Structure formats: C-alpha cells, structure tokens
Amino acid sequence: MNSFKTNLLTKFLAESKMRYTENHPLNKLTTYRVGGPARFFIQPNSFLQAEKLQAVLLENEIPFFLLGGGSNILISDQGFLGTVIQFDFGEKPYLRKENGLNRVEIPASARTGFLSKYLAKQSLTGMEYISTIPGHLGGAIVQNAGCYGYEIKDSLQEAIVVENGSITTYSNQECGFTYRDSIFKKKENLWILQGNFVLQEGNPEAIARKMDEFKQKRLLTQPKNRRSAGSVFKNPKGQKAWQLISNAGLRGKKIGGAMVSEKHCNFIVNDGSATAMDIYRLAELV
C-alpha cells in the first residue's frame, strides 16, 4: 500500500471514528497461532460502518481481507500489507416468530460455540453440529461449513451482505452453496453481515444429547492439539481425504514444527514451534 492510499485510509478511519490499529499482529487471531502483522486491522461495529469502509476500499483499490474467527486460514509469516477487517457486531441472535416459523437473525461476528449453546437454550434444533466447528458465523456461511451430514445451507434462509458499498440480501439459492463452497469465496466484493435462519423447535434434552454426541465424536476422532485449522483437504468424491493421506504413508509426517496428526490424518497441527511456511510446505507435500 503506497503512502497516498495509507494517508487516505488513515484520514477516513479517523473521520468515521472506526476502531483500528496499524501493524497489528495476526498470529493470535488464528487457530494455527502463526502469521505476521496486518498493515491495518479494522473492526467495524455496525452495518453502516462496514458499508462505508467497503466503498472506500473498492473505490481506491486498497487491498483487503475479511477475517472471521481465524479457524480455517493460514496467514503468511510476512503478514498482510493491506487491510484486514474483522467485524464486531456482537453475538446475540434476534429471534422472532413469523407465520408460525422460528426465524433467527445472527450477526456474522457471532462465535459458533456461543451460538450453538444459545440456540440450545432456546430449544431450537438444526444447528447442534456447529458446536464442533470453531470460528465465526460469517466464515461458516462462506465455507458452507458442516459435519456429520449437516451443512449451513440446510437452515440458512438468506444472507445480508454488503455488495459494492451497498447493503443487499442474498437468498439461499443465490448464495450458490455446494460442498464447502459458496459464491462468497469467489467474489471479494461480497461481505456477509448477517445470516437469517429458520429453525425448528425441539426437545431440550434431545438437543443436549445430540450436542454431546457430536462432542464425543470429535474427541474420539480429532487431535486434542487446538493449534490446527481442522480438516485441511476436501474429500474427493466417493473417498475420504484422511484415508488417502494415511495410505500415502504421511501419518505423523513432520516439517519443522508442523505435523500431520497421527490421530486424524486430515489435520495438520502446530506443535508450538511451527512457522506458517512449515505448515504450507507440509500441506504442499500432502
């Protein structure tokens, strides 16, 4: 980012009273706990702030990256020379009844762990699985995150987004959901602000049992080392990525401080000393 764009952005941020820091370390904002700093780290706290920020960044061709909970990302050791944005809209969903349906409006910055527990307390079923997927809701929508046969697309009605500096709505169909993919991965001018869901009322005890079942599955099959990004590779059609990795003889393979998990071969874990390049090189080898 040149000095002209730096000065322009600094002036805009000061005038808009948006919270930001310069040369902000990113390693603690990812589950891998690696990565260098962001030239600018900005946290819009309202949809209006996000709308204005996107308009300025696009108009002036300032490089940017949208960061959610940092659970499915590897940030370079050199960091990011542009602007990293992380929304701070709060977490609490807004619940309302409409035509007999339970509609749930959830800010993109809501943590999935908090969200699953909150919905369970409201006796709403359909998103218990998300308790095992770390991150923020916005990132989960981008990824069409899922596990154990469930996906975000199953209950999402629509997404509220900023597109080219204006707020608009994308229906479930317009989101272009496929296996671990969506239109939001392909267009950087689409920022998810909120997800609107329709959920069913359920039995509180049954919901608790299902969440506990998912938790036990995770503990039995996934590494306890939390310095990972979950499953690294998509499953090829009709096959399991972890099986292919195991068959290739890579279980436990290490490069520097990065290792293919011995417990689940589709996980690459940081033993505490890994650099981003260690993890990248190991993923490339796999």
Question: Compute the gyration radius: what is it?
Answer: 20 Å
Q: For the residues shown, what is the average pLDDT?
A: 95
Structural class: alpha+beta
Distance between the termini: 34 Å
Can you tell me the residue ranges where pLDDT is under 50 for at least 5 consecutive residues? none
Secondary-structure element series: HEEHEEEEHEHEEEEEHEHEEEH
Q: Estimate the helix proportion, in percent.
A: 25-40%
Shape: globular
The total strand number stands at 16
By DSSP (H or I, 4+ residues per run), the number of helices equals 7
How would a textbook summarize the main sheet?
Answer: 6 strands, antiparallel
How much of the polypeptide forms β-strand, as a percent range? 25-35%
Describe the structure.
Helix content is 28%, strand content 28%. It has 286 residues and is of the alpha+beta class. The strands form four sheets. Strands 5, 6, 7, 10, 11 and 12 form a six-stranded antiparallel beta sheet that branches. Strands 1-2-4-3 form a four-stranded mixed beta sheet, with no helix packed on it. The chain has a four-stranded antiparallel beta sheet with strand order 13-16-15-14. Helix 1 (3-16) runs antiparallel to helix 2 (47-59). The protein is globular.
